[in-house]
Structure to design on (1053 residues):
């Protein structure tokens, strides 16, 4: 499970400038502070530059500037973090599954499974589903009728795709994720909720990652759509008819309400919530736990919420917020009266 | 997978007034803007009235008023959205499972499974459980000891019911939901948490829907109780001993803490959180991400949180909120002093 | 499924002072208000003292002080809630699984399963995994390569451990939990996210409890670490490289971002969110839905958010918060001007 790769091979793989012994054996990756004498490390964040001098790492991924001030072996690259990302896969202990179908799997006669795919124990594949070349389906995965997984996909154990879920190429889905669940669609008839069948599906682009226990509901009429290169962390909720633009990333615990449309290259930090039927333009960054109640038409960073305080102080602030409207009126009144008694008073803006 | 139904048949099914060709074949449903010439659409939201003129739909579900201004075929009904809800099921491509038990299922000898039920691959049903008439258990479902599912229930693949979970009739449970998990019950003994066995169960009424990856914990002593007609969206957390009144609906990512009691016909928008041991009366609407820290005794709408701002402005607001108590005191002080120097000053209310 | 235990036996088990009939048969536990004549109850919260007089319980767990004012049978103990916690397990109807491996389980030839462990239907155990003495693995559990579960562990049906997840002794994991998922690690290359392999694992201490559908990601380089005695409720997200100190408890729906370190004996209420790369010291209490954006270095209680209001009032408050910076400047200006016209004016603090 532990790879051993020579420093010179890593330089070649990365197209890096090697400074040091090309024969040095690298057995893993670690942080600057924790790396041992057979491990490679990297400096990406300037804050950690102070750890360079004491690092015991076999070698470091460094920018040219940083390499000048470092005496040890180095692989010099333009972007050390990206270089680390690329070689991390060489040291990944994740088991690779062999091609073939586990004898316990239950596969519909008219499902199409590429012979290079790996189908784990207790997998269920329903009628007319299609599993592409090189796809891995972990144990206990369920692929519903007519659903499709493009080539190179990797599904952890226990992923559920309902029927009519179309997944692009090289998509990674973590355990517990559910795609195609029946969205929250009900019509109210005199106080009683009547279910609306969710007859759309889900379309997921290429190179998407979907995290642990994340849910993406099927569309009510048309498909819910996840663009190419989208990265969704764990415990996310994507409601029916949502559209997520290419290369947008969402951290854990985000919730997107129905029919909302999110642009390309957006970043949603953890716990963000969006109401339904709004549009977020491209290149929007939402800080953690922001509550988004209307569309955003300008790129940029947005936030909501209050700063944490010691609980006793917070209780005062929270009480005062409820008085704010009254305070604002009293402030305006004071301004008028002070304006009356101070002849030079200039009217201040009433926001 | 695609149904074809004549327009006249749909009129009959709905009790609608048909205006147009009863023999026209309808193959599906779509929005006004997307419907093609074999698809039915509907106008429910007046905002979309502008799309009527260009709709290519085969026919529309319309109110009588709207039908007057529309030239094409129509099914005239009092509530088009409700009519759409009713006929949506006719076009639902969701596979129907045949009655019978998949040979891979593991079923305790003393469990009772109605012969009309459909039990999928790798299902586990434990001792003394009861599965009612017409129930569907998707692949990988687990039904614990003595648990019961009433007639007409539909459980997606991979639903877990622990022991002593009693489910009413026609209940729908989406994939990944877990009912009867052991609630968060611990007694603190000198800083160390001692587990309290959760010996109650879960009772779920009729016509309930439970969303993807939603958790409903078992009661500590008595049951956790979900009323009739309750609709729970995805990723919801219902803690031990909670009671939810009939026909209450909760959108995704809501969290209800232990022993809290929620009334009938309430609506909780996404991301709402409730502390434990409080009561919410009937007909309460909580807007998204509201933090509920005390009981609510009056019907109506309630909210908390701050409005989203560009991040730079938000940082200023957040800093000012921490100064609010100081600001309020200074405002009061100014009022007193201005009252002193301005003879006609009338005291303003100190909220 | 219902235990019957004599009152005298319970007194002996608890080391309690018995007042009443040692032969009285106890068949279960219930609250003061609901207990019937064969059930034991307890008084822990003084608020419930009013229910003592009408309780129909067979006997009560009471402090000596409370026992003086109560006429019925009693078990007198120093901490009734803790005593209730201890005896609750005697009345727990949770089925016990017999030792042995279900014939449907798929177990790698080089995995080591203690003969006293109970392995349920459709369990998958991969290469070089180790299952300790007395461990229960519920149906559909998945244990990845080289993962280990210490003695006495209890995993509900459908728990997923990826590879290289090391679990201590007596750990309880509820259904749907996923340990070792691939954390949210990506490097941005010209707007496109490149995946970083997550080569660390997860280490979980002894006596930990992990709730329904909770996710704990594997470390990027080193392990994600959960200390001894930690209790995690449902729907929690623990990102990669997080460290949680011993005996810390988190209620449902908490989200901890990557590389954050949480101290010992902390309590996080429901829905709390923490940004990444911060440190929380020991003995911190975070109230529900608090947004934590920086480290905490002093023990104590902390909060954020605004108090719930009727929605119409809340809209005014929310609008005013956006004007706060302007209000604060206007207030300062007024103070200066009033200071000018009132000779005795002393400058107030500008917070």
């Amino acid at each position: 499970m532990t790879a051993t790769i020579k420093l010179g091979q890593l330089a070649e793989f990365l197209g890096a400038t090697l400074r040091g012994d090309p024969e040095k054996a690298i057995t893993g990756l670690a942080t600057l502070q924790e790396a041992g004498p057979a491990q490679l490390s990297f400096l990406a964040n300037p804050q950690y530059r102070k750890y360079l001098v004491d690092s015991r790492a076999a070698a470091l991924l460094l920018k040219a500037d940083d390499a000048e001030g470092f005496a040890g072996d180095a692989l010099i690259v333009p972007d050390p973090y990206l270089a680390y990302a690329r070689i991390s896969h060489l040291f990944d202990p994740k088991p690779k599954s062999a091609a073939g179908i586990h004898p316990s799997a239950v596969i519909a006669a008219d499902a199409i499974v590429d012979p290079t795919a790996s189908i784990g124990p207790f997998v269920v594949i329903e009628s007319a589903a299609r599993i592409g070349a090189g796809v891995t389906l972990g144990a206990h995965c369920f692929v519903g009728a007519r659903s499709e997984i493009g080539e190179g996909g990797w599904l952890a154990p226990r992923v559920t795709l309902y029927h009519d879920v179309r997944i692009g190429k090289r998509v990674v889905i973590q355990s517990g994720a559910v795609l195609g669940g029946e969205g929250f669609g009900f019509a109210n008839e005199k106080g009683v909720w009547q279910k609306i069948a969710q007859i759309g599906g889900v379309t997921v682009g290429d190179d998407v990652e979907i995290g642990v226990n994340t849910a993406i509901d099927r569309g009510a009429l048309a498909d819910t759509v996840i663009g190419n290169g989208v990265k969704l962390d764990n415990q996310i909720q994507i409601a029916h008819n949502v559209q997520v633009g290419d290369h947008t990333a969402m951290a854990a615990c985000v919730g997107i309400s129905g029919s909302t449309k999110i642009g390309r290259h957006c970043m949603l930090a953890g716990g963000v919530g969006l109401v339904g039927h709004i549009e977020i333009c491209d290149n929007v960054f939402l800080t953690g736990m922001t509550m988004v109640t209307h569309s955003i038409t300008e790129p940029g960073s947005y936030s909501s919420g209050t700063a944490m305080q010691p609980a006793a102080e917070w209780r005062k602030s929270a009480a005062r917020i409820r008085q704010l409207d009254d305070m604002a009126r009293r402030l305006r009144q004071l301004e008028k009266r002070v304006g009356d008694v101070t002849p030079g008073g200039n009217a201040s803006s009433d926001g």
